[in-house]
Write a structure and sequence with these properties.
Elements lengths: L3 H17 L1 H7 L5 E4 L3 E6 L2 H23 L4 E6 L11 H11 L6 E2 L26 H12 L8 E5 L5 H15 L5 E5 H14 L2 H9 L3 E5 L8 H16 L3 E6 L11 H8 L2 E5 L4 H15 L5 H10 L4 H18 L5 H31 L4 H5 L5 H17 L4 H7 L5 H16 L4 E5 L2 E5 L1 H12 L21
């Protein structure tokens, strides 16, 4: 029997398809997501973090518009990872997603504008008031406060890095919003690495480099989020380096954000890495219990719901990896309470989060592994999910599978399913191949825009583990990887 909520979801999906076109809908939504509608919440479940984050960045407004048009109601949007959805993905869908990204650049920027005819400030989502500070991010927070108060002085340039969902984007957007409030005449520009790349390529093709230089140099502050996107793009790196030098030489503020430390971003030129490590480099760590608890309290307050300390603690103790999963768990508890007309008790919270805890704990770790490995090799996580077998992708995919087996409890079929519905035998062979290479001290070789690159595999794996914050024995001493039983579904 079809419920009203199911009918509404179907109508919302149809409206989304109308707005973005059937091609984009088939690539990013059909077989790849699941919408769940409750009283005030619209949850978007995705098979992996890459798909969820792409949809969040590019289609959030479209989803909310479609939902409002269908139901005449405002919703709170949340994104969660559900690896079970990987079963519904078509075999070639990850290939089409990567192809779509390569062939459909976006050119959107956010910048300050003044009343004298220059552009007017457009607020971004992140604000300093909504950023929860604690031991895991205190240095980054303090640097952001100083940059807001005194742009172009003490912390300049500033490079903020941390795993996905830990608040790097929130913090650099908060800096822009802080400038708009405290320094209304300050001219700033906020772009992502993807947007900077697309803008640069467009300027080169259209022979509009003079206008490009004016947009990026005739300002007081430049903020680039996801700067790791410039990896593997030599021409864009050169253009960015020249822009960086010009702004830095003028004493203007530069703020950069990335998922990884500058030295762990693959295919960056030595000149660019040297510039980045000379910045004030600060890391946002995984949120400690204090931060997780405070985030949940603030989120509950924003949702205008009463949540006991016991429920807050239960969620905070079971969702450790990032803020997004933490808030998603709280939203799930609140939604369950609203659907059942029950108070938010510890018993209800335990029921509502039981499956989420089982599904997300190893998946979050695998998402982190995919992110760190792909950035190191100048790829995107989507590349690891494709059927492509180039030397670079095969090596990166094998290392990711090896680390997943070593540091998570996921079985070979689970890892394969999450990484683009690969056969479990593919995961077994890849993990054993990397293990054998480590044991025999065989160097890793892969292609870069500058040609073939070779690196000690043991050191490479150790560097990746350090970036992930993982402790354990040296890779070459690791025990042979054998099959585990698949987890109960």
């Amino acid at each position: 029997m079809i419920t009203c909520a199911q009918e509404a979801v179907s109508s919302i999906e149809s409206r989304i398809a109308e707005k973005i076109g059937p091609k984009r809908f088939n690539v990013w939504f059909k077989n790849a997501t699941q919408l769940t509608l409750t009283d005030n919440f619209l949850r978007v479940s995705a098979p992996n973090r890459f798909v969820g984050e792409w949809i969040e960045r590019h289609f959030s407004d479209v989803i909310l518009e479609a939902a409002k048009e269908v139901t005449e109601q405002e919703y709170t949007l949340s994104f969660v990872t559900d690896p079970e959805l990987a079963r519904t993905l078509r075999k070639k869908q990850p290939d089409r997603q990567v192809e779509y990204i390569a062939n459909n650049p976006t050119r959107t920027v956010r910048e300050s504008r003044r009343a004298d005819g220059l552009p007017v400030a457009q607020p971004l989502r992140g604000t300093l008031d909504a950023f929860v500070s604690g031991p895991s991010n205190r240095l980054a927070y303090a640097a952001a406060v100083d940059v807001i108060e005194n742009p172009g002085t003490k912390y300049n340039p500033l490079f903020v890095h941390g795993g996905c969902g830990l608040g790097t984007t929130h913090l650099v957007q908060a800096i822009c919003n802080g400038w708009a409030e405290k320094h209304p005449n300050l001219r700033w520009r906020y772009v992502t690495g993807e947007e900077f790349t697309n803008d640069y390529v467009y300027a080169v093709k259209a022979r509009e480099m003079s206008a490009f230089h004016s947009r990026y140099r005739d300002i007081d502050a430049l903020v680039i989020d996801d700067v790791h996107f410039l990896a593997n793009k030599r021409a864009t790196q050169e253009g960015f380096l020249n822009t960086f030098k010009a702004i830095d030489a003028a004493g203007k503020q530069i703020v950069l954000a990335s998922d990884a430390h500058p030295k762990m971003i693959g295919h960056f030129s030595d000149s660019l890495v040297s510039r980045f490590v000379s910045c004030m480099v600060v890391r946002i760590e995984s949120p400690d219990l204090e931060v997780r608890t405070n985030v949940l309290r603030r989120r509950a307050e924003k949702l205008n719901v009463e949540v006991s300390d016991a429920v807050i603690r239960h969620i905070a103790e079971n969702f450790l990896a990032n803020i997004r999963e933490l808030e998603g768990a709280l939203l799930n508890v609140v939604a369950q309470a609203q659907i059942g007309g029950e108070p938010i008790t510890l018993s209800l919270a335990e029921r509502a989060t039981k499956n989420l805890i089982r599904q997300t704990a190893p998946v979050v770790m695998l998402s982190d592994i995919e992110s760190v490995v792909s950035i190191y090799f100048g790829l995107s996580p989507a590349d690891l999910h494709t059927s492509r077998k180039s030397r670079t992708i095969a090596l990166a995919r094998g290392i990711a599978m090896y680390l997943a087996r070593k540091h998570t409890d996921m079985s070979f079929p689970e890892i394969g399913r999450f990484m683009g519905n690969k056969n479990h035998s593919t995961v077994i062979l890849a993990s054993r191949r990397i293990g054998k290479m480590l044991q025999d001290n065989v160097p890793a070789q892969w292609m870069t825009p500058a040609g073939l690159k070779e690196h000690n595999l043991s050191n490479l794996v150790a560097d990746l583990e350090e970036q992930l914050g993982l402790a354990g024995p040296a890779p070459q001493a690791a025990a042979p990887i054998e099959p585990r039983a698949a987890a109960a579904s």
